[in-house]
Amino acid sequence: MARNPERRAALVDAGVEVLAREGARGLTFRAVDAEAGVPVGTASNYFTGRDDLLRQIDARLHVRLAPDPEVIAELLQRPKDRSLVTAFMHDLMGRAIRDRTGHLALLEMRLEATRRPELRASYTESVRGDLTEGMEFHRNAGLPGGDETVTVLYLAMLGLIMEHLTLPGVLEGVLPGVSVPEGLIERIVETVVPQT
How many CB atoms lie within 10 A of CB 186? Predict the structure, then answer.
């Protein structure tokens, strides 16, 4: 197995691009090689198989889509109230928009996990870990609401991100006078997070 970490990272990022654009069925080593601009056969030297590539894409997306620690630190200087939760949700949406490809790849991973039990187990563990981490962050930061609040926010924001990145016209004008996605984020937080 090849050990060049920079090339491996470039191949994984190429895999993200292919996955987002072509779906899981289009995610072949040949397609990854072409996307990365490397000779045919390169990806097969770095990954033991497609499942290995998908697991590494999952790990890479957690890095790519993670919040900026400096932004989090700056936000945590604010009062621990509903408006801070709103700011965190705006940051989440901003990251989704800036790395649309990464989020579309995550959606493709979900779909592929429904078809492949071996991927479903590891991907379920990964996504559940994210949710658990979000709950712990919320509690440790002293934000209003508890685990139920975080779970409902997670579900609402996941739906908003999915619609905004895939079929943005679905939400345009659905609530007159409410902008998409900014105004909908405000409404979600107002509805879900208790006022302190």
Answer: 17
Residues of the chain above pLDDT 70, percent:
99
Q: What is the pLDDT of residues 42-73, one digit of tens each?
A: 999 999 999 999 999 999 999 999 999 999 99
Residue 48's CB: how many other CB atoms inside 10 A? Answer: 10
Distance CA 20, CA 37 (A): 17
Separation CA 14–CA 95 (nearest Å)? 19
pLDDT tens digits, 135-155: 999 999 999 999 999 999 999
Task: Name the token pair of 129.
Answer: 């870990």
Half-sphere exposure of 172 (CA within 13 A, CB side): 5
Give the whole-angstrom CA distance, residue 91 versus residue 24. 28
In contact, 194 and 149? CB cutoff 8 Å? yes
pLDDT reading at 92 higher than 80:
yes
Q: Rounded mean pLDDT of 167-194? A: 96
